[in-house]
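[step 3/7] fold_predict: job queued, chain A
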Amino acid sequence: MSHITESNVTIMVKDMDASIQFYEQVGLTLKQRWDNHYAMMVAKGITIGLHPAEGNDNSSGTVSVGFMVDNINVVKALLGANDIPFDEEDGKSGHYLHFKDLDGTILYFVEPKWR
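[step 4/7] structure written:
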């Protein structure tokens, strides 16, 4: 049995430079980049791999990536300052800001109600 030491979610992207900039704008940090072959973006508890899309279909399908935050107003201001459109929802489990990356991957920030 192998022991997993790290993990990541890979997202297919059309423009590596623009995608790195987008993920930096929403609070992730570039950990490593291999030219336009692959890049690793990190935040506490997650690594997102960016990989160039091959062909036209690079949809994330039914995958979404969520980021838990302590203060939803801070990230609401962050999205606004970077002109990133979002939908706001006050759900049963938390206060959500739903948005998409440049390639249509569904992302969200949530301030959980269970704390």
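[step 5/7] annotate
Residues 6 and 47 are 9 Å apart (CA to CA).
The chain is about 15% helix and 40% strand.
exit 0
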